[in-house]
Design brief:
Layout (H helix, E strand, L loop, with lengths): L38 H9 L6 E2 L1 H12 L3 E8 L11 H5 L4 E6 L10 H14 L6 E4 L8 H12 L3 E5 L6 H12 L20 E4 L5 E4 L2 E2 L11 H7 L8 E5 L3 E5 L3 E7 L3 E7 L5 E5 H7 L20 E8 L4 E5 L3 E5 L4 E8 L4 E5 L3
Parallel strand pairs: 1-8, 2-3, 2-5, 3-4, 5-7
Antiparallel strand pairs: 6-7, 9-12, 10-11, 10-13, 11-17, 12-16, 14-17, 15-16, 15-18
Length: 367
Amino acid sequence: MTEELHCAGCGAPIQNEDKNKAGYVPTSALVDRATVICQRCFRLKHYNEVQDVDMEDQDFRDKLHELGRKKALIVKIVDVFDFEGSWIPGFQRYVGDNPVLLMVNKTDLLPHSLNENKLLHWIRRQAKQQGLKPKDVVLLSAKNKQGIQEAASSIEKLRNGRDVYVTGCTNVGKSTFINALIAEFGENEEQDITTSHFPGTTLDMIEVPLDEQASLYDTPGLINDKQFGRKRSLKERKEFIPEKELKPKVYQLESGQTIFIGGYVRMDFVEGDPNSFVVFMSNRLPVHRTKQDNADRLHPERVGDVLKPPYRVEDAPELTKHRIEIKEEKTDIVVQGLGWITVTNPRASVDIYVPAGTGVSKREAVI
């Protein structure tokens, strides 16, 4: 392109290289067009559908600093399956004195037997550890439209006539949530939240009017490089990103034993009394148990065979070792983007191998 065009809907610079970035327009749509709107705005205008868009770390944080200078309600959406991987560190300091509504999405992935009140208390404790004291916490399954009414009520109660900014990392279901709001309230002007079919003109954001004075803004999603999977193939992603309720897999291990989760995670039980390890990852990922002495020859040599996905040895990710000391009972070892393993009993030493660059941490067990 010889001149820089801007989307007439949201103001983002027009580009035709990356459909996950703001301002994307297919090349075919740029021919003989004096006025251009990006694909994201086009889909909102014609289909009432918001598409997610990614933003690099520094650009995203610059946008967050801008929010701190506004008077608004900030909605922060996190993924309950990947709580740590979808948490924005230092979030409270970016949004200033603005109230924060914390929404926890994809709760349909957790076992139905999980007590909702216990989950809410766990979330509040985790948020407090991260320095955030939300005004309210709402549990969601935006895909299944569960919790949408409660979310809308909480937004209306907390915003006090102000604008609302919806924030979050990529793939937390931010746009799915907004689309659910549009579907629920867009055709009924008597509801608290009403919407327009047309986006606003705020750079890199989508504006959905709430009333004559205020709007809800969908902000771009932060890319978290510590989440595993961004650079894996679509076929593989379907294997390790869960779509249904997680079925916990329980393994009774003695020290010196190893479990592999596909070709992505290796966990060595190095030291401790016999213990129970519960795997909460995609139901499609097979778990293979073996002796620690055999583990070195299995990865990557048996990737695509005993260990899969991935499906070819040459696609096996490089694994990096992390030593985890378990001191409390019922502790989760979290692998960002893949799920977690719950260690039932305390006083255990574990080596966990994960794809290089993937975030690993431990926490109080969620289940």
